[in-house]
């Protein structure tokens, strides 16, 4: 626990110093010994990983001077005072000055080790809290700029945290609108250069003839129209950060001069032979694969390798759709505050449409849509009061519920076809309760109810009947379909007035139906009896 923390011991008595050093070393506590206050003061710095143990009476400056100097450098640095019997008043004064504790002489090694261990534990907790606060501040700042909770954007935030305070150059790659300049600004704001200039330049926004002068500056008379000296962007960013956007648009001649700046950290203005040293960190951004362009001969490979020390890949918005609700709420909140408008609330249906969109403009397009929604002039398909958008092209993607329902309908229709419309057997075969199958079978073209048997015979109609035809409905009790069902089931016996059962007058079980023309409807029972002369016409 105390292995990484060091004790700075200030004691002019060689015997006491040796005894203290040996006692602390036996307790596995690193210690460095000094003989005067002047010798130890250069080793005290803010955030010192250790504590100070000093004698009250020293040659030159005394222990109180050590306490005062240490408190000025780091108010939380523990200082332990060693005092003699006659120095009680000085010990009280030291405690009032901010000393952590005091040890009266003579003292035992165990007493020294106990007090030092308590001070080291306090120092360790103080440093840990400071580090956590620093990390929390940095994390909150990044989460406010790089909004989202997806693993992809979390990796970007982690990488920015790790390299922000380093002096290395950074290459950011991502599609248009993914937030390359936001990342570059975050790298600058969370580095030691945060108080120095941040200079941005779009390499594709200037003609080739002006980009050289804009970057490196020029002297009077360097070219036609150069009336006075001009400081270039690189020199203006001295001590800070230079952001070069659309690096792939930089001409080959300017690439050579930029490579020299990255290697030698000096520039020469146009029309001058004087080298000017610069301390600048270059953050470049591109939407293309620079190595592929280097293989094609349109970009210098040595410049790619020189810039590609740290490479940050920004994912497109379509690869982190789970961040869309958080981003949309963030942008609408900012827009509502900027335009002094109420923040609109999108229904879930509209939010699902936004999440299903591919967003070719990425985060920038989403931010523009959020601004338009707050102003009430957004596109109709994302308006909170308008109809749901019509799915077309890549946006025509069914929801999970629609996909499941479509699969269920297909499964039920296939199972009913195999079991000839028998809902009970279909549900048993698919190991599903019957009520859901009976309810959903209506969406497949099969009617709920009794199983349909295929009619037999030379005059049987076509089978199976078309979906939705009357022959599939169980509610029809008359007509050709009902006659065929009655004929296949056989006649029902009816009770006569005398109590005896007898077959119906129009036929008996197993009697074939009368001949009829192919495709003609089957006659009704009354028609059959009339044809046989049993019913008067």
Automatic annotation (TrEMBL):
Region ranges (Disordered): 419-537
Q: Which UniProt keywords apply?
A: ATP-binding, DNA-binding, Nucleotide-binding, Phosphoprotein, Transcription, Transcription regulation, Two-component regulatory system
Low complexity compositional bias, start-end: 469-481, 498-521
Which CDD domains does the annotation name? AAA, REC_DctD-like
Q: Which InterPro entries match?
A: AAA+_ATPase, AAA_lid_NorR, CheY-like_superfamily, HTH_Fis, P-loop_NTPase, Sig_transdc_resp-reg_receiver, Sigma_54_int, Sigma_54_int_dom_ATP-bd_1
Q: Name one GO molecular function term.
A: ATP binding
Domain named Sigma-54 factor interaction is located at 146-375
Tell me the GO BP annotations in alphabetical order: phosphorelay signal transduction system; regulation of DNA-templated transcription
UniProt key word Nucleotide-binding? yes
User: Which superkingdom does the taxonomy of this entry point to?
Assistant: Bacteria
Biased composition regions of type Basic residues, renumbered to the chain: 485-495
Could you tell me which residue ranges the Response regulatory domain spans? 6-120
PROSITE patterns associated with the record: RESPONSE_REGULATORY (PS50110), SIGMA54_INTERACT_1 (PS00675), SIGMA54_INTERACT_2 (PS00676), SIGMA54_INTERACT_3 (PS00688), SIGMA54_INTERACT_4 (PS50045)
Quote the SMART domains the UniProt record gives.
AAA (SM00382), REC (SM00448)
Residues with the modification 4-aspartylphosphate, per the entry, are 55
**Pfam families per UniProt:** AAA_lid_14, HTH_8, Response_reg, Sigma54_activat
Cross-referenced PANTHER family, in alphabetical order?
C4-DICARBOXYLATE TRANSPORT TRANSCRIPTIONAL REGULATORY PROTEIN DCTD, TRANSCRIPTIONAL REGULATORY PROTEIN
| Name of the molecule in the record | Two component sigma-54 specific Fis family transcriptional regulator
């Amino acid at each position: 626990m105390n292995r990484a923390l060091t004790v700075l011991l200030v004691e002019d008595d060689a015997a006491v110093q040796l005894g203290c050093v040996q006692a602390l070393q036996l307790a596995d506590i690193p210690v460095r010994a000094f003989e005067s206050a002047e010798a130890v003061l250069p080793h005290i710095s803010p955030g010192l990983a250790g504590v100070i143990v000093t004698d009250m009476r020293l040659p030159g400056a005394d222990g109180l001077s050590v306490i005062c100097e240490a408190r000025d450098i780091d108010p939380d640095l523990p200082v332990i005072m060693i005092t003699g019997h006659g120095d009680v008043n000085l010990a009280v004064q030291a405690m009032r000055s901010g000393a952590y504790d005091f040890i009266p002489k003579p003292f035992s090694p165990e007493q020294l080790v106990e007090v030092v261990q308590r001070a080291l534990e306090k120092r360790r907790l103080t440093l840990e809290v400071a580090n956590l606060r620093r990390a929390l501040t940095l994390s909150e700042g990044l989460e406010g700029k790089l909004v989202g909770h997806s693993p992809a954007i979390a990796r970007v935030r982690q990488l920015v945290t790790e390299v922000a305070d380093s002096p290395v150059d950074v290459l950011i790659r991502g599609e248009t609108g993914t937030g390359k300049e936001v990342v570059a600004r975050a790298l600058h704001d969370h580095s030691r250069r945060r108080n120095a200039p941040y200079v941005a330049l779009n390499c594709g926004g200037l003609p080739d003839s002006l980009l050289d002068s804009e970057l490196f500056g020029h002297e009077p008379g360097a070219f036609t129209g150069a009336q006075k000296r001009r400081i270039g962007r690189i020199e203006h960013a001295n001590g800070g950060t230079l952001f070069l956007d659309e690096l792939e648009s930089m001409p080959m001649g300017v690439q050579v001069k930029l490579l020299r700046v990255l290697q030698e950290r000096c520039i020469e203005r146009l029309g001058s032979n004087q080298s000017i040293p610069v301390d600048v960190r270059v953050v470049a951004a591109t939407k293309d694969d620079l190595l592929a362009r280097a293989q094609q001969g349109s970009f210098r490979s040595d410049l790619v390798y020189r810039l590609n020390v740290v490479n940050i890949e920004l994912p497109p918005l379509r690869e982190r759709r789970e961040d869309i609700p958080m981003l949309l709420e963030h942008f609408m909140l900012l827009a509502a505050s900027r335009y002094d408008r109420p923040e609109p609330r999108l229904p879930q249906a509209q939010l699902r449409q936004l999440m299903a969109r591919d967003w070719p403009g990425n985060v920038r397009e989403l931010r523009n849509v959020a601004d338009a929604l707050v102003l009430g002039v957004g596109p109709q398909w994302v308006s909170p009061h308008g109809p749901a958008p019509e799915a077309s092209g890549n946006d025509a993607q069914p929801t999970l519920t629609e996909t499941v329902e479509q699969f269920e309908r297909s499964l039920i229709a296939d199972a009913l076809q195999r079991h000839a419309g028998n809902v009970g057997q279909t549900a048993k075969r698919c190991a599903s309760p019957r009520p859901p199958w009976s309810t959903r079978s209506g969406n497949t073209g099969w009617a709920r109810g009794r199983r349909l048997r295929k009619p037999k015979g030379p005059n049987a109609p076509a089978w199976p009947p078309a979906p939705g035809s009357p022959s599939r409905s169980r509610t029809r009790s008359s007509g050709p379909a009902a006659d065929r069902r009655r004929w296949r089931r056989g006649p029902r016996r009816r009770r006569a007035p005398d109590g005896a059962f007898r077959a119906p007058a129009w036929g008996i079980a197993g009697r074939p139906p009368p001949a009829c023309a192919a495709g003609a409807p089957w006659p009704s029972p009354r028609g059959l009896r009339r044809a046989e002369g049993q019913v008067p016409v």
